[in-house]
Amino acid sequence: MHGLSRWRVSSGRKEEDTRAGQESLTVGSWRPTISEVHGLAPHGQAVRSIFVFCSVKESMRVLFVGDIVGSPGRQIVRDRLADLVAQRQIDLVIANGENSASGFGITPRLAEELLNMGIAVISGGNHSWDRKEVLEFLPHEPRLLRPANFPEGNPGGGLYVGAAKNGVKFAVLNLQGRVFMTPIDDPFRKADSELARIPEDVDFVLVDMHAETTSEKLAMGWYLDGRVTAVVGTHTHVATADEHVFPEGTAYITDVGMTGPHGGVIGMDRNGIIAKFLNGLPARFEVATGDVQMNCVLIETDDDGPRNAAGRIRARAIERIRLHID
Ligand code: FE2
User: Fold this and answer.
1) pLDDT digits 0-9 by tens, 106-148
2) Number of separate domains in the chain
3) DSSP 229-256
4) 291 Cα: distance to centroid of ligand 1 (angstroms)
5) Of the residues 58, 212, 231, 316, which has the maximum number of CB atoms within 10 A of its CB?
């Protein structure tokens, strides 16, 4: 229509509309509540994009980095994490680090190294106790978790409460399964008691369920649907393709996968593992080489929608991300 231009109000994050002959006007929040309103302006041919002020908070983007194995795993995190955080506008990074010391455990020095890379909280698992020097360190570094359902009196804790760099309060709970693993305390009832300890003003809650079987992890996902923002599985080191958001708003994946070398068997040199299967003799395993990957999930929250039954933010999406060393 001659002499008229179209006005558009878009939803989504702040963006630049740089198309020639068009004009962008950003006047407010990165999370407008109005979406795709089209109209006609009584002058000119230019298309204008208007972003409307509103009071809602920016959505939260949380990256969970799957089990970091040995020096290759630490190296790819060092090389790739900062760019990923910048490119995807990530507000909070959490990682499982129980295999970061040559595949078995984590040391105080390596924990500090990972924290200095931009990881806010490091979760653990069955290997959390492998390095004896970490036992004295655990009570002094609350950002280094071990599964909460180990016996009372063990060093450290399995729950961390903090604030992301965008100011949003969050909590991370680390649990361990019992099927084909050490028969520790019930992770389901431990989840109940630990979640009850999280303050009401915490918006985002993530659970790392470190377990061997898909069924135990999936059961935990359903058990916590509507009570936490995300349940992510770790330990098996093989990424699963079942990431989704449960009906009550909890993001879920059975296993995030491994951050480390995929040229072996779940991070260890394949020749030693094959020999172990052939002869059954005790063996010393070395970290594998080749095909180093960083496997992660990116969880995006739904700040516009209603809170879940526990008053936490619901997840809107969960996305698998796999990076390779070039
Ligand atoms: Fe593990």
Assistant:
1) 999 999 999 999 999 999 999 999 999 999 999 999 999 999 9
2) 1
3) SEEEEESS-S--S--EE-TTS-EEES--
4) 21
5) 231
Q: Helix (H, G, I), strand (E, B), or coil: what is residue 279? A: helix
| 227 Cα to the center of ligand 1, angstroms | 25
Going from the C-alpha of 38 to that of each of 8, 27, 34, 48, 50, the distances in angstroms are: 5, 17, 11, 10, 11
Type of residue at 158 = G
How confident is the model over 137-186, as pLDDT tens digits? Answer: 999 999 999 999 999 999 999 999 999 988 999 999 999 999 999 999 99
Any idea which residues carry the catalytic annotation?
127
Distance 215 CA to ligand 1 centre (A): 16
215 belongs to a structural domain: yes
User: What pLDDT score does 302 carry?
Assistant: 84
Any idea what the CATH number is for the domain that residue 296 is in? 3.60.21.10
Residue 271 lies in a domain: yes
Q: How far apart are CA 133 and CA 131, in angstroms?
A: 5
Q: How far is the CA of 236 from the centre of ligand 1 (A)?
A: 7
Q: Does any domain span residue 105?
A: yes
6 assigned to some structural domain: no
> Could you tell me the residue range of the domain that residue 194 belongs to?
59-325
